[in-house]
């Protein structure tokens, strides 16, 4: 977490602990915190405060975007590389999944063929959570508007916030999901932007919070911390992207040059700064992860939500990567506070681990 987020959060865990849905002074103080955070999130996301819904994170925001708009079987469309929070939600309403190119970018011709007058919602992520590949969102939005003008366009921007200006990059989308833990906030809190005029049915009912679009007592401390992290991220984003992008490329170059049989899954120009995705020939990533973990490098084989799963990544399958090639996939993620020392540690640990596995 960013220190700004921790500083914002702590007093709300010990002092201002009122329920913001109440009417007494402690409740009003908590409600004021919520609305200040809503103003901040609206400013950084490029929307009006009333268009921000607070959620428990990216998964809930994605689920709400699909289930809250889809009005029947086949009415939802997404790409084959979406996070499972979107993919499974679309599959649940018997929606359509379209393919991608070799970098995991949505196939615009397939997208055009998949959408039409019966399409209620189209969901396309902005940055892939496994590979870091940036989607051609604006081009995809143009395709959807031309072929399904009444469809609602949702983008899962959870993996994008730290690296892209969402106020610009998601301006054409009707619904936008973000999650605090991806940009230095706490886990368990996120937001969904719902543009004015978009009809969204709440999926969690009860007290009618968030204008009846998401009931439940607010996570006041988490929401305040998310807003603080968002402000700090936007403030530092240009410098952070330049620094982290250089570190990410240095890591990839050093691993590729020092370890035989390594392939960088996507070129730097196609990806956001914070992800380094590599594939190791003749190595099973599960064994590699164990050795890296023992040496202080915490990585994953694919999505963090699917870590430990033995099946090859659905993202890599959609990109045309064979199961034999996908089995050696390694995802290394950078954060706002990553350093050159982290790169040095990772390169040493990876080189040592691969040598050990190949020797055995």
Can you walk me through this structure?
Helix content is 42%, strand content 12%. Strand 5 (152-156), helix 7 and strand 6 form a beta-alpha-beta unit. The two termini are 39 Å apart. With 360 residues, it is α/β, with parallel strands linked by helices. It has a 7-stranded mixed beta sheet with strand order 1-7-6-5-4-2-3, sandwiched between helices. A 3-stranded antiparallel beta sheet has the order 8-9-10. It is globular, with a radius of gyration of 21 Å. Helix 2 packs parallel to helix 8. It has helices spanning 3-14, 25-45, 58-67, 84-92, 108-114, 137-147, 166-169, 220-258, 285-294, 314-318, 323-326, 340-359, and strands at residues 52-55, 76-79, 96-98, 121-123, 152-156, 175-179, 190-194, 262-264, 275-280, 329-333.
Mass-distribution shape: globular
Q: How many beta-strand segments?
A: 10
Unreliable spans: none
Widest sheet, order of strands: 1-7-6-5-4-2-3
Descriptive terms for the model:
alpha/beta, 3-stranded antiparallel beta sheet
